[in-house]
Amino acid sequence: MHMIIVGCGRVGSTIARELQSQGHEIVVIDRNKDAFRRLGEDFIGRKVAGIGFDRAVLEEAGITPDSAVMAVTSGDNSNIMIARVAREMFGVQRVAARIYDPKRAAIYQRLGIATVATVAWTSNQILNIVFPQQSSPTWTNPTSSHFIYERHIHASGAGRAIDEFTTEECRVVLLGRNGVTQIPPTTVLLQDGDVLHVLATSAAIAMFDHAVTAHQGSHS
Amino acid sequence: MNIFRRQRSDSPVVEESVYPLIASLTPRSKTAIRGRVVRIVRQPTQGLPTLLVRIEDASGAATAVWLGRRSIGGLDLGRTVVIEGVPMTSATGLRFLNPAYTLLP
Amino acid sequence: MKIIIAGAGSVGRYMAEQLSSTGNEVTLIDSDANAISRVNIAGVTVTLGDACEVDTLSKAGLSNADVVAAVTGDDEDNLVISLLAKQEFAVPRVVARVNNPNNEWMFNEMWGVDVAVSTPHLLTAMVEEAVSIGSLVRIMKFEHGKAQLAEVTLAAGSPAIGTRIADLGLPRETTVVAIMRDGHVLSPQADIPLHQGDEVVVLLTGDVEQDVRRVLIGNSAS
Q1: Assigned domain for C123 exists
Q2: Which of A38, A146, A153, C23 is deepest in the core (most CB within 10 A)?
Q3: Which value does ipTM take for this structure?
Q4: Which domain holds residue B74?
Q5: What residues of chain A lie within 8 A of the CB of B76, using their CB?
Q6: Going from the N-terminus, what domains does chain A have, and what CATH number goes with each?
Q7: Nearest-angstrom CA–CA distance, C201 and C179
Q8: What is the pTM of this model?
């Protein structure tokens, strides 16, 4: 996949190296050329010096609607701008923005942009947004029979009750929406942008992933 | 405001009396309304996508405006929804800009 | 009117002073304590805090403000402040300063901005107005970008020379505001014939710029 990472600090450079090792086509954007040093000698991806919400810079980075864009600069405001330009100007669907301040993140989530708001973040959390089904579970029990997985809901899952995905081997234990996290009743309808924590067996999570991305039938 | 607490009580369907009627709203005062989606318009603003969703309750209608979006999953014609935000007056009635929303069955 | 100004640099302080002297209730916001301490204007309140945070905006009184002016030296901040002002506080009028002209394209309703002011843009327009003959100079936009004030100084080959204003054939979405001739301002009576060198000031709405150029400049010129 063609992936654009804006911000080559500790976060951005770590994600860039990790994703490159997975074989993706990576482009890193940063205002400051010196920041690219963090990528190391073996980094073969492209580097573009410039401002991440500048249209010409994004075009130079080869942005297309099929790209994935991760806005991980040290500025919350810049990250939101980058995310919106990518989504609205260039039609990018897979966009994630890092927002340092959790209160701001709650507000920006209403814009429909997937945000990661945490001080002690991990690259896994950003990757969770772009590669939902490949990230590792956040918890396992000692016998590895059950796992808790983080899942982001997109349009295909929206409007469907949690009930529809609840089985003896699969429960949605946490629902995060607009900055509020709850243990949800199964009657709640899922929405685009919801962040779920799903407790399931590995077989059950595969079924969950398949069911939640399958296009729903017509409304009753 | 916590939608979940209400839903956890009895039925999944929230009582209508819990939400103020659109006709009774004071502009610029944070609030939540419940209504049905009666119209969806995708309108480009300065070349960028904007979604306008008209929501109606027993007393009238208001418009939810989302900047930069072409559609919102599950927010279709006929859907019952709760909208939460700060309404502003406009030529076409009250508008909510990028409100929080909750889809109801 | 109640006006909140985000950014207590020299621009913000100047605005606060002017607006307060004409009887408005003005509050300045800045996150820099030094900038705040330099504010010593009668009748102006100050709020210390990050204007990109809803709590600060709330403290500063946006809930019943009539106008918010986001005039920091940082375009990212100005856009976010504008969006929050519209989204969280439904402020009727939001004015924002554009620092870098490359960002001007974002300063509109998509970020909650009603009026964007770019000093470089204004400077250019003023220079063009002073020196250009035979081209259309865009001076200023109003009404959420729907109305534009522009001017054309009629060059020698202009098809409008010798024609009365009423006979120009300007599109409906245009008003001739004034004619400047030899240092005088002429109000645009319908029967005034235009001369070479007249500076024609027009207000246009809609997409009629091309038509206005055709009438006042002709087909070959820019």
Answers
A1: no
A2: A153
A3: 0.88
A4: 3-104
A5: 159, 219
A6: 2-130 (3.40.50.720), 139-213 (3.30.70.1450)
A7: 6
A8: 0.86
